[in-house]
Amino acid sequence: MYDFAYEKPAALAAAVSSLASDMEAKALAGGQTFIPVLKQRLNKPSKVVDLAALGLSGITVTADTVTIGAMTTHGDVALSADVQKAIPALAHLASMIGDWQVRHRGTIGGSLANNDPTACYPTAVLALGATIVTDRREIKADDYFQGMFTTALEQDELITKVIFPIPQRAAYQKFKNPASRYAMVGVFVAKFASGVRVAITGAAQGGVFRHAAFEAALSANFAPDAIAGIVTPADDLNSDIHASAEYRAHLIGVMTKRAVAAA
């Protein structure tokens, strides 16, 4: 990797100030994507700002919400009895990210800031209609994701926590790449009194997205067969050595039916 300066601030304001003072500086959360990128010399930051000492981890559950600190690891979410009780689908999703080494280092805030188009957490955030809280504002899930590896965050803006509304029912189903465990297609379904939200990861060129046709059908009838006959267009889906766009389109329907059945 290239040389860089390293900082580990103890206060959020200091971390934000450090990032704001240098446009080439990068924040380090769990490092599960960023450190391999540095090792491969695919990024050359002037400075790395480590967020580990900011006290941004922890889980709080109320009657209506689950709030997860940005530096909370996937493993902590997966093993949390409070999350398992309030939103079991979210704990289940976290339990399927990578392997135990990844889950004990990777963080929810790092995953959302990176917004990998095959990552799992974006589906939960989008399907549950979560709110991403930063050092300066609150961003609704529908406004946060803006394309592959692109979000509404400014360069010096840091996620501090994520607030998830508790649904009536929810489930996550993932068709994993057998080597990387990333989602070739992952589907999160959430049912609220106001209707159903469905989010898809791993399939589209632009990253995570909501499936409006499935949402309408499932809001009228929350049953696996409700989406029978609805065809997902393959035009904007990924096609690679692992699966064609047409196969991913088929998988979206299959995994959505499984998620509804699980919910």
Keywords:
11 helices, 23% strand, 263 residues, 2 domains, 12 strands, Uridine Diphospho-n-acetylenolpyruvylglucosamine Reductase, domain 3, Uridine Diphospho-n-acetylenolpyruvylglucosamine Reductase, domain 2, five-stranded antiparallel sheet, alpha+beta
Task: Describe this structure as you would to a colleague.
The chain has 263 residues and is of the alpha+beta class. The protein has two domains: 5-50, Uridine Diphospho-n-acetylenolpyruvylglucosamine Reductase, domain 2 (2-Layer Sandwich), CATH 3.30.43; 59-262, Uridine Diphospho-n-acetylenolpyruvylglucosamine Reductase, domain 3. It has eleven helices and twelve strands. The protein has helices at residues 12-20, 34-39, 74-79, 81-86, 88-95, 100-103, 108-114, 121-127, 141-144, 212-220, 245-262; strands at residues 5-7, 25-28, 47-50, 59-61, 65-69, 131-134, 138-140, 159-165, 169-176, 183-192, 195-201, 209-210. A five-stranded antiparallel β-sheet has the order 4-5-8-6-7. Strand 11 (195-201) and strand 12 form a beta hairpin. It is globular. The termini are far apart. The model has no long low-confidence stretch (mean pLDDT 96).
Number of helices: 11
Q: Uncertain spans, ≥5 residues at pLDDT below 50?
A: none
* Integer count of domains: 2
Distance between the termini: 45 Å
Gross CATH architecture of the largest domain: 2-Layer Sandwich
Beta fraction: 15-25%
